[in-house]
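Sequence design from tokenized structure. All designs in this work follow the same two-part layout: the structure record, then the generated sequence. An example of the structure record is given first.
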């Protein structure tokens, strides 16, 4: 389906957020899923092509629009998208992805996000807040510094609004940050996750961090079936 860029801005250092107007159409998706976007006349091209997939940031209950966020790089696709203007058209299709909320709302959830891996959790937390779902969610969100932490203020607002959602930030290379600076490790999880052995863990981050987190959780005797991952 055709869609138009309704807004775009850099929301953190090196992170672009883009909102698409679906032009009166609706797109059904679950929180945590992704979509494909094609640029009809990209300003730049390379061997990776002009069709890429991105996680949906907004909640499924927010109809008529799709919001995505991405780290800006030198890839032809991202350079082209960054140079597009409000009102420019794109093609949106192919909702997919199994990284979504468990059906059982009684299960405590731990979201572990590294960098742009926060995107599926934004959709999940927004949806849980809007629908007053019963999930008890602990978000562990790691960035190098506050300047590059996408959605920091939005997450703080969600945390304040919902007693069921707790956000823990760590900025590993920020000398001015007054909060946690540690890598997410066994001690970090023990410190911030109540009854950590009973939780379902969902990890979204670059592949190296995903593998490191899985190893840490397995060392904590978390069953493999309780660990759900997505590479970014």
């Amino acid at each position: 389906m055709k869609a138009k860029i309704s807004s775009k801005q850099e929301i953190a250092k090196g992170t672009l957020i883009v909102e698409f107007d679906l032009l009166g159409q609706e797109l059904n998706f679950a929180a945590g899923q992704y979509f494909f976007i094609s640029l009809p006349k990209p300003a730049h091209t390379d061997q990776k092509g002009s069709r890429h997939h991105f996680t949906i940031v907004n909640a499924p209950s927010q109809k008529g629009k799709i919001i995505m966020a991405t780290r800006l790089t030198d890839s032809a696709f991202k350079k082209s998208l960054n140079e597009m203007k409000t009102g420019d058209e794109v093609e949106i299709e192919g909702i997919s992805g199994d990284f979504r909320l468990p059906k059982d709302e009684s299960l405590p959830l731990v979201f572990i996000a590294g960098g742009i891996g926060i995107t599926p959790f934004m959709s999940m937390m927004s949806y849980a807040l809007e629908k007053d779902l019963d999930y008890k969610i602990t978000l562990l969100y790691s960035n190098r510094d506050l300047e590059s932490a996408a959605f920091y203020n939005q997450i703080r607002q969600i945390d304040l609004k919902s007693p069921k959602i707790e956000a823990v930030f760590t900025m590993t290379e920020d000398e001015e940050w007054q909060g946690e600076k540690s890598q997410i490790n066994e001690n970090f999880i023990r410190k911030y996750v109540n009854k950590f052995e009973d939780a379902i863990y969902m990890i979204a981050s670059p592949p190296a961090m995903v593998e490191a987190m899985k190893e840490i959780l397995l060392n904590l005797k978390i069953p493999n079936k309780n660990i759900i991952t997505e590479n970014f």
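The radius of gyration is 18 Å. We note this feature because it recurs in several other targets discussed in the main text.
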